[in-house]
Amino acid sequence: MTNAPVYVLIHPDGRAEWGDRIAIAEKALGPHGIGRAFLTDGSRLRLAMSDCALILREEYAPNPYAAAALAHVAGFPPEGAPETRGPVVLFGWDPNNDWDSTRPLTDAERAVITEALTAAGCATA
Question: What is the pTM of this model?
Answer without folding.
Answer: 0.93
